[in-house]
Amino acid sequence: MFRILCANKGRELYARSYIAGAVDFIFGLQAKAWFESCDLESVGKGAVTANGNTNSSNLSEYVFNNARVFSSNASMNGTAYLGRPWYPYARVVFQNSKLGDVINPQGWQQWNKNNNTANVYFKEYNNYGRGANTSQRVSFSGQLDAPVNITDILLSNYTSEWWVDTKFL
Question: Is residue 102 part of a domain?
Fold first, then answer.
């Protein structure tokens, strides 16, 4: 399972979904995507996300709220990362989420040794679980003081613009 979900363009909402993969299994270039109460299973070594935000005017961002990141295989402990920057302006947030011991203590990783992380926006807020300890996180990640609101990503009219059963959220 490689690159399972392409969150690539426009505003996107994923709720109560099971998404599994190994390397960059949630990826894309221009989407503003909200992931609500999703189960993310890492089945191989690598990053969960690879956001491809190419420049400061591209507003691509992925926000995972109330997610569960885990592996069913105990030998995978510490082998997965929350994300890595496909392009230099990658934006990913994990908040209010249960991060299992599959998450490496560094949390996030570079794409390669030459990868510029100066403009990367990798943030966490109020996560819990064995993989949520931020004491060893990489220097290009950080903590938020407040959670991201769903309307920051999908805009305030998302429930009237699309068919969204808000009871499902």
Answer: yes
Quick check: is 74 in a domain?
A: yes
Is position 21 within any domain? yes
Q: Is 101 a catalytic residue?
A: no
Which residues in the chain belong to E strands, given as ranges?
5-6, 9-15, 18-21, 26-28, 30-36, 39-42, 46-51, 61-65, 68-70, 80-83, 91-95, 98-99, 121-125, 141-143
The C-alpha atoms of residue 100 and residue 131 are separated, in whole angstroms, by 5
Report CA 62 to chain centroid distance, whole Å. 6
Q: Is residue 116 part of a domain?
A: yes
Which two tokens mark 94? 């994990």
Q: Which of 24, 39, 101, 145 is catalytic?
A: 24
Give per-residue pLDDT as tens, 94-141. Answer: 999 999 999 999 999 999 888 789 999 999 999 999 999 999 999 999
Global model pTM greater than 0.70 = yes
Which tokens is 48 given? 């969960």
Place of tokens 């230099």: 88
